[in-house]
Amino acid sequence: MLDRVIDSDTHRLLIDGRRVAALSGRTFETLNPATGQVLARVAEAGVEDIDVAVRSARAAFEGPWGQMKASERGALLLRLAELIRRDEAELARLESLDSGKPVSAIARQDLPAVLDTLTYYAGMADKINGQVIPARPDALTYTVREPLGVVGAIIPWNFPLMIGMWKIAPALACGCTVVLKPAELTPLTALKIGDLALEAGFPAGVLNVVPGFGKVAGQALVDHPDVDKVTFTGSPVVGRQILQGAAGNLKRVTLELGGKSANIIFPDGDVDTAVKAAGSGIFFNTGQVCSAGSRILVHESIHDAVVERLAARAQSIRVGDPLETSTAMGPLVSEAQMNRVLNYIEIGRNEGASVITGGARHGSAGYFVEPTVFAGVHHDMRISQEEIFGPVAVVIPFKDDEDALRIANGTVYSLAAGVWTGDIGRAHRFTKRLKAGTVWVNTYGPTDIRLPWGGARDSGFGREHGEAAIDNFTEPKVIWINTGR
Ligand code: NAP
Ligand code: MG
């Protein structure tokens, strides 16, 4: 049954500790992509709402939040984790209904990652230290790490809870305050997290949640002169717009953008496991993953066998109602995204590649596309160069190491890559020469909050996670005390 609708009809903005209507009174609809039906009406933040939210975040930063002990900030993050754990089932259902993600995957992957992120940064809140740097004999010189101030966090729809928390948790641990703009397609769980933060005891204004459209609410946040930092995950096109907007008051910017990651399979490794992982690497989250292993590079000696086994795996994936726990793959997030993916499949066919399995819409309700495998793909085809962001694998044969590296590194992206081999020397040569922020060897896809995450070129710049995120939200201040000699 796909037609389960959320009861409450209006979801208001969360600004300064209260749920409020947009000043314009405007609302927009969010849909359930598994049915195409309206799920909820949500207040639509305009430029003026963003301004109120930023003022509130500034007041909280200058006021109660700035006065709080770091360990208390950590304790509040832990309290928020407890409340998320309490409401886990509701959050998973809400996220699933709004985004089409399978509820089982949210429970197994997204929510544990959210909790891990919170507890990791909760523990870090009171360990953000400066340094004594004895630069001169006539002075005591040291640094303190100060929070940047007001952070604008703009997130996409593919992992609303998890990517949201990747930004919120370190920013708050560092003592910043946040205005969070969720994607218009998936605003509901961000609002719920905002409510839980209030229940946990975060002061008003520390976390504001302002659903709305990117071009209006997102842009207003980027343009706002009193926002100190924008942390963004999304597309390269919008990433470039954000850099331009941020030029106004020279905001710091972190950009996590797209990818077209290569997953390289050699015959000298565990090919069975490689094929299984290659399947999950592209079909997990319906392929809507920035680090999806969307280009599967296979040594020519095993190419045909890998294509056949990958196709069999694709056919075995249970596609259907995301609320059923047995479902492995849900719909694309929207009709536009479904059409974009179907259009790319058409482009691939016209370019002369062969659809081995899939290649069409699945069913007629909701925005489902069949898990699709292309073979006969050349490196210069659009389906091999451009991010499709859907359940579409392209398999490309290679001759030798140099050929594999040339193809793997031959796109505008540099986010992630994988290599499967039993040869330790080859593994090290590839980790060194693959252009990517993360290289997986004999696995594909895991992330961990302790490890820096990000890319280069059209995949963006800067790193999230780990201690890198602390640097993203703080800056050292030098104190120079003249002691005389
Ligand atoms: P998107 O169109 O760039 O949107 C991302 C966010 O930016 C949304 O909240 C969007 O609001 C907002 N936005 C749009 N235009 C804006 C503007 N002019 N100023 C400020 N904000 C604006 O990307 P998407 O389609 O949601 O997500 C898919 C992309 O994200 C893919 O390219 C994918 O690779 C990338 N991604 C990267 C990572 C990573 O970690 N590197 C992770 C996930 C996704 P609206 O929703 O209202 O448009
Ligand atoms: Mg939705």
Largest sheet, if any?
7 strands, mixed
CATH C-level class of the largest domain is Alpha Beta
**CATH fold type of the largest domain:** Aldehyde Dehydrogenase, Chain A, domain 1
Small molecules in complex:
NADP nicotinamide-adenine-dinucleotide phosphate, magnesium ion
**N- and C-termini, Cα separation:** 80 Å
Query: How much of the residues is beta strand, in percent?
Result: 15-25%
Task: Look at the helices and sheets and give the structural class.
Answer: alpha/beta
| Number of domain modules | 2
Q: Write the CATH architecture name of the largest domain.
A: 3-Layer(aba) Sandwich
Structural summary, described in words:
With about 475 residues, the protein is of the alpha/beta class. The chain has 2 domains: about 10-255 and about 460-480, 3-Layer(aba) Sandwich (Aldehyde Dehydrogenase, Chain A, domain 1), CATH 3.40.605; about 260-440, Aldehyde Dehydrogenase, Chain A, domain 2 (3-Layer(aba) Sandwich). Helices cover about 40% and strands about 20% of the residues. The strands form 6 sheets. A 7-stranded mixed beta sheet has the order 15-16-17-14-13-19-20, with helices on both faces. A 6-stranded mixed beta sheet has the order 10-9-8-11-12-22, with helices on both faces. The protein has a 3-stranded mixed beta sheet with strand order 1-5-4, with helices on one face. It is globular. The chain starts with 9 loop residues before the first strand and ends with a strand.
